[in-house]
Amino acid sequence: MTQNIYDNQKFFENYQRLSRSTKGLPGAPEWPALRALLPALGGGRVLNLGCGFGWFSRWARQNGAARVLGIDVSRNMLMRARAETHDRAIRYLRADLERLSLPSSSFDLVYSSLALHYVKNLRGLMSKVRRSLIAGGSLVFSVEHPIYTAPSSPKWRTASGRKFWPVDGYLDEGPRSTDWLAKGVIKQHRTLATYLNMLLGLGFSIAKVNEWGPTRRQIASQPSWADERKRPAFLLVAARR
Amino acid sequence: MTQNIYDNQKFFENYQRLSRSTKGLPGAPEWPALRALLPALGGGRVLNLGCGFGWFSRWARQNGAARVLGIDVSRNMLMRARAETHDRAIRYLRADLERLSLPSSSFDLVYSSLALHYVKNLRGLMSKVRRSLIAGGSLVFSVEHPIYTAPSSPKWRTASGRKFWPVDGYLDEGPRSTDWLAKGVIKQHRTLATYLNMLLGLGFSIAKVNEWGPTRRQIASQPSWADERKRPAFLLVAARR
Description:
7-stranded mixed sheet, 27% helix, Rossmann fold, homodimer, alpha/beta
């Protein structure tokens, strides 16, 4: 089973204070880029892997989805998702993404925001995801970017007066332990090629790739984000079955 | 016109001493990975962009290609390519990749090794490449990896006893000047997403991506290459029209 860090009370308390938790999708700076990768949702069935508080599940319904299934392993997340959702076309399910069963040819869109880098057997999950999509269906997801997850010591360094992101171990895939919101949060580092070749090998076609960093406009309103253009924090991918 | 650094005498003298210049394809550590991306060549027509000394052009003929057209901007490179090629099915042409004209639907494979990062208007060239391929034809190329080209100061740094590659400016695309074999060699930094989305936008499908680093076996025979697993030096892409 994947580490269920969202049910760690300290982590969860800190997570609840993030802008993306208090403001929802508009509080996530990468949301406009992720939204741009989505297909039209009109009448579609949506699966949301790692649905968290349900922000996207509700947004999908407001933007035309017929039905949404949100899956998350965290009791904390689902409790709040259920409390804030008043829509019988949205269903939430507690499940470990490593051990999921999915119905075949049942979804027009599988969506996942910043959850898949927690999954060890991602190929197994992606294989199930592919079978769960209708022909022509879409997979749209974000993960922490491999440049972001690669370092053995993932913090900014300064040399000769310049800030750098210290990349090492990029090609050595596997778990990375970081102290983000709590100590010992485990994420899986994979190369960008591994993400893409895994999808291609399962019969997906790649539609678009986005290595996310803030736009100049976003930096103008949030000057502290300027460093985020030095290396991409997030990888966004759109693929088609 | 792209900087024609291979006709800079100092650069060329140093380039001629590299393992890939003296030994040809087996002297390039990424060659086995690049070769693995190639389609079967039997009877095919091959375009080699940035053909250099003609190693690949001759290899393609020895591996079944019917005809090969090698293009390079460097007089130095083409002089040696012509001197070492004794095969009337291989033709060499001197041309700037920025200003190329290509016949349409004429090639089964367009191949390029470590040349496209010199090209400013890569989209223009890739658009011509797509038209020059038959339907189902392949584009296989390598470039310096964006992680490799991104830094403002591209050399290993050490902190807390660990070597790392100092990534900054990853999302800021454009020329990078480095002192590699000669001073002021200009390469174009592009993100990985830009390479892939450019191809997708032109109607290519992505077949495979390789972020090249040495295998453990290669490191065993060349221990000095171990650092090359900390960050990929080359990006290899196979795409289909």
